[in-house]
Amino acid sequence: MHKETKFAVRFTLETPIVIENLRRGNVEPPGGGSTMINRNRLARVFTIWIIKSTHMKSEKISELTTNRLSVYLRCLNDLAVAGEKTVSSDKLAKRFHLNSAQIRKDLANFGEFGVRGVGYTIETLSDHLTKILGLDKEHRVCIIGAGRLGTALADYHGFKKANFTVAALFDSDTKKIGKKVGGVVIFDIKNFASAVKRDKIEVAVIAVPAEFAQAVLERIVKAGIKAVMNFAPIPLKASCDVKLKTIDLTTSLESLSYFLAKPLGENNLGVKPKVKGRRK
Questions:
Q1: Which one of 4, 33, 114, 134 is separated from 194 by 20 to 30 angstroms, measured CA to CA?
Q2: Which CATH topology does 139-250 take?
């Protein structure tokens, strides 16, 4: 095995901190005598190893995990605003009612970002999570349906904080076309494909009545958009290369209704489940 490969395997690290230390000359390989050229070559070995490792793991990352990463990022941003510089997984969990073991497990899917005994550097971890979630660049969004829900979404300022820009609204109502909602122009749905290409739209949001949702989805996919959020209360069919996420507010409310309808002793509030003993 090549000496540089041995060094990489010996450290078995997948952390960007090591690469930076190598380039600065803060870490020497076994035996010493390293030159800056050797450090840069070693850094490239680590970089390639990290990319391969992250790629292999990312294929197994669930949507639940990415949802939690988004929560972690939001919590880190709150800590940064409060002036905090570092945080441990235990402190992060206690502060925001999370699970410290789950935090460590989720982050381990993408590398080792913490330092034993110190925790995570908030700014560094925030930067990494931002890149992992693809939030280091702007994503342009369109909303189909300029009704109450569509216009409310268009006027929601939280999208900009997460680097999502609502670039256009679409509707078939001629009375609405040409008007603005929160600075966003309402366009004719007939011109959808050309507008998507012109405005470089990547994400589409469906906010139309259920009976029109499938046809709208087909129009979206035909225009080349691969990421779709559906607010219509109906399951939609999409090809496997399209990421479709449905948010059914009615179903969520009905779930809460079920919770409220159950007697206090049956809704799992402070009630430990009975464990049957094993038969001898």
A1: 134
A2: Rossmann fold (3.40.50)
Cα(275)–Cα(186) distance, rounded to whole angstroms? 58
Locate the domains of the chain by residue range: 3-58, 63-132, 139-250
Contacts for 210 with CB less than 8 Å, ≥ 6 apart: 232, 233, 234
Alpha carbon distance 223, 59 (integer Å): 27
pLDDT of residue 225: 97
Which residue reads 């006027």 in tokens? Answer: 155
Amino acid at 173: D
Helix/strand/coil for 246: strand
Distance separating alpha carbons of residues 28 and 21, to the nearest angstrom: 9
Cβ-contact 200, 173 below 8 angstroms: no
Q: Is there a contact between 170 and 189 (Cβ–Cβ < 8 Å)?
A: yes
Q: In the block, which residue shows the tokens 């913490």?
A: 114
Helix%, strand%, coil% for the chain, nearest 5: 50, 15, 35
End-to-end, the C-alpha distance of the chain in Å comes to 56
d(C-alpha 200, C-alpha 139), whole Å:
9
- Rg of the chain taking only CA atoms, in angstroms: 25
Is 225 in contact with 196 (CB distance < 8 Å)? yes
The phi, psi pair for 2, rounded to 5°, reads -65, 145
- The dotted CATH code for 63-132 is 1.10.10.10
- Residue 206 predicted with pLDDT over 60: yes
Angle of CA points 214, 210, 196, to nearest 5°: 50
| Cβ neighbours of 25 (radius 10 Å) | 11
